[in-house]
Design brief:
- This protein folds into 2 domains: 44 residues, no CATH class; 55 residues.
- The longest helix is centred in the last third of the chain and has 26 residues.
- The model has no long low-confidence stretch (mean pLDDT 76).
- By secondary structure, it is mostly helical.
- Helices cover 83% and strands 0% of the residues.
- It contains 5 helices and no strands.
- Helix 4 packs antiparallel against helix 5.
Length: 100
């Protein structure tokens, strides 16, 4: 009940909004794909390489977000190290794509 009032006062979070109905998820997915394609066209790079860090970050953030309140300190620390690995993957892909 309090959660509903909080959502009414501040609005739903992006994650709860995007996780809603299937059509909404599809629209969010399509918008993300279009954004990556547009950025790739503007920057004249290969867009498929940019998907690698996106997948890495989603693999880190989605499980953490689902269980964030129940995780002990050690679980948050493991998540931090996974985030550092995703960050390293992002750096490598950015170097491969943009450093020509």
């Amino acid at each position: 009940m309090e959660e509903d009032r909080a959502d009414a006062a501040t609005g739903p979070s992006l994650c709860s909004w995007a996780a809603g109905e299937p059509r909404r998820r599809q629209r969010v997915h399509r918008a993300g794909v279009r954004a990556v394609r547009l950025a790739a066209a503007i920057l004249e790079v290969e867009a498929w390489l940019l998907v690698v860090p996106l997948v890495a970050w989603l693999a880190v953030l989605l499980p953490w977000y689902r269980h964030r309140e129940a995780l002990p300190a050690a679980g948050h620390q493991r998540g931090m190290y996974r985030a550092l690995a995703a960050w390293a993957i992002t750096d490598l892909v950015v170097l491969l794509v943009f450093a020509r």
